[in-house]
Amino acid sequence: MRTVIPVENGDALAAARGFLRQLLEAGVVEALLVPMETPSGTITPALVTDPDLLAAANPFAPVMGLNAARVVGHVSVREPRGKIGAVLRSCELRALVELVKLRQASLDDLVTIGVDCLGTYDVPVYVELHGQGQVDMAAYLATAQSGDLSPVEGYAFRDACEMCEKPQVENADIALELFGADLGAGIPITLSDELAEQLGFAPQEGDGRRAEVVEKVVAARTQVRDERFGDIRQRLDEEGIEGVFAACVRCHNCMTVCPICYCKTCLFKSPVFDHEPAQYMNWARRKGATRLPADTMLFHLTRLNHMVLSCIGCGMCTSACPTNLPVGRVFRAIGQQVQAVFEYVPGRDVEEPLPLVTFREDEWMEVGEE
Amino acid sequence: MDPQPRIGVYICHCGVNIAATVDVKAVAEFAATLPGVTVARDYLYMCSDPGQRLIQEDIKAHNLNRVVVASCSPRMHEPTFRGAGEQAGLNPYLVEMANIREQCAWVHSDRGLATDKAKWLVASVVAKAARLEPLEAREVGVTPEALVIGGGVAGMTAALDIAEAGFPVYLVERSDHLGGRVADLNRIFPTLERVADLLGPLTERVQSHPNITVLLNTEVTQVEGYVGNFEVTVRGVEEPLGVGALVIATGYDVFNPRRKPELGYGQYPNVITSLEMEHRLAAAEESGPEVLAVNGRLPKKVAFIQCVGSRDVQLGHPYCSRVCCMYTAKQSRLVRELLPEAEVTVFYMDVRTFAKGAEEFYDEARKKRVLYRRGMVSEIYRRGERVILAGEDTLLGRPFDFEADLVVLAVGMEPRADAAELSSLLKLPRSSDGFFLEIHPKMRPVDTAVDGVFLAGCCQGPKDIPDTIAQAKAAASSALIPLLRGTVPAESATAVVDVEMCAGCGMCVEVCPYGAADLDALWNVSRINPVLCKGCGACAATCPSKAIRLQHFTPDQVLAQVDALLG
Amino acid sequence: MAEKFEPKIVAFLCNWCTYTGADLAGTSRIQYPPNVRIIRLMCSGSVDPTYVLKPLLDGVDGVLVGGCHPGDCHYQSGNYKARRRIIALKEIIKNAGFDEERVWLRWISASEGQRFAETVTKMTEFLREKGPNPMRQKWAV
Q1: ipTM score of the complex?
Q2: Shortest alpha-carbon distance between residue A119 and chain C (Å)
Q3: Strands (E), A21-131
Q4: Most buried one in B312, B456, B545, B564, CB count within 10 A?
């Protein structure tokens, strides 16, 4: 059912908080996993059971410190678990689909509350803006109506957001559909008839401009994406991955924040890559010098092989990189090609099998026979 | 386990097989410099008793905890050297082989380059050996029954031997009778006994044997499982048959001479196949030589043409069918006896009489004035009631035209048209000629790449009846080994899970073809059932953290092998 | 150039088909260039992407992965999984600035000794033509 959360005094954030409170109080969920404003001025996901604390909830917060699909996994992966509502932006919803396939999260007893994403800042940028009193939620939310998504002047959204061509919510139990809406008047939502009844909503159409605005945003973002893909592909072609990632310090931050990299211990932190001192000497002699820490490009290339088919483009890797490497651009640009080979769209459908655990006997019959 | 590797490296000369191409002394000297190597030696034949003793004495004298033998393919002698190590108290999985014969000495001729390659192959295996871990030998039980596919002489003989040893056997035959191709024959060389007199009692014994279940008019449609425990689905039989071993005795097809239209078969009544001649000779014994008449007249000139469909590279049949020379000697002799007036000429490339009593039999045919003319017949055409054989006399180097009343084409054998189906059913490799492939043409002519599946008779390649029976008995005795032992070695190099590292993604469960991996419901980590695991490593390759490792092929071992190859 | 360039090839061969095919090339004495160095694995489906990536980064000029023809895998379906994995790997390295033509996946059966020898010969010639893997000179990887 499509309906609208009423907004009073033009305060969409308050209306959204009220809606979340309603979910808890109506017993739709026992707890909400939602971005919360901390007293120190940043945002973190938290699992909230006290409706009063939802006064600090900010489901629209323009900042992304982590892909919350990871923490949805923490609270959902095993029984016993609570009935939880998770507020997620589109890239988090897509990551969640992949994590469900990888059995790192479960949709059982989970109500996903998806929010159209208007773009996010890196944490330090957000903290700075917040400190200067420049986080104006009303102004930020107002950009949804026209689709002219723009950061505060002089600042930029995260690289991944600037080239995100899937900012709109798909496949959520409850979708907060911001695009095209006058959020000062009401927040259009889509939810099941059953849930709507439980919460006392009657069908109500918004002004119907969402599709048009989404199309506009996607077109603009796609253009940016393609330009950046073009740039990074040219660099990869000319310099190789070893050139693009030359400044890598192998801190593994990209892997740590990646929602798809679910291994408990990365292979590259395991004894397999714990080499003997004599081995380093051998390598140094072989090529005259050997980069340290060793296996840096092997790490990136192996990680590409392990997760790029599931890369949903949240760009947390880029945000986390201490040397500002375009990790996300590289992974997304390569991922786009590899995903196309397998006609695989990560995050689309939990029923779509991961390409490397399935096969058809009669595919690529020409491969291997030449 | 001693953490510090103390490796012994043994470079085999294999007589001159390796030593002629590879400087084995240089390889041994190089091996001695590799990390972890305590002793490196070369020796004439490592697989010989003194060779094995050399290793065993070194294990004791130098307290070796790993052994590398650089010699032939591990597919040949790995069990030998693992056994030698075990006798000296070393876990057999701490013995590893470098293949410097099949994959080096025999395929390269430049001594310098071959020696260099051998060094790196040894270095690579030494690097792996240093990281080897001992594994436990494991055994699984065997279903004490066997199944034989094919009810010809080979299949019946094999079934009978297994049954006589006391084990139940299923004999699956596609046609409605036992006897196979031999049942089509009249008399056999070199004794000229009647086939019916020999085949009858054999068939009778098979049919009445309490341990043999004969399944006629049916075929095998599916084979699952492994040596010791196969599950064979037979059309028309409801439950899959559980057996410990399989004998393949599916025989051959007779070459169809219509594929050589220049010989006029099917066009002229004068041209018949040797099999048709066999039938006519049988009829002639019953009712007199008149049945040999062509166009109403007894033939005055009879010609036999050898190697039809054999030794013919263009047809893809480069092999010799091994029976045609002798059955022609037999038939030509019988024709001489039935038609003493007729002139009998055999056109041949070479006469091959290697079987016991065969040369004597052939001599007898010539004494009975069967004429042998070395020559190739390239075309047969009609002239009146007769046909003309046009060809070249290869002794004189001259063309000839030869007039004949009756021409017998000595058709050869070819792989059965359905051999490919059985091949894919059993994952049984075939050689380039299309017959089933034995593991080694000399040393293991009955074994196949699939443990517990053995070959008997012409499905492996053309052979005569005594060779077929000998191979059938060999196949039966090989099949009896697991049945008698009651257990077979199970794969020791299975996949194992490090539960501390496993994130429970379940991809291993998805890719395991044997259902050996599942997720522990409580801890949400993978478990591998070692009884079901066959050690293919699909799970390990899929596991991104390597929480699953395939033992004996672990990432650190393989990557060390790669690294060592680079110097 | 002082010396003629000779490529180094690392081959990962499955025990049941290609490794045995390579043995058959040996027993048949079919000659091929000594540039290939073989590592025996049980199944092409156990070839980890890292096994291919590591030698490429170390400067090996070519990597050959050999398995059973479709339908012939000793372990039922390892070669089908290998096929997808190698296709993904080649697409990744191609887009990461590597020459994916240095990685060959070939199905070679136990009876195809000739095909094994021909494959190694062709691959050696192909890589001679192509020249050394640039990674030979690159220490900062």
Answers
A1: 0.97
A2: 28
A3: 31-37, 43-48, 84-89, 110-115
A4: B456
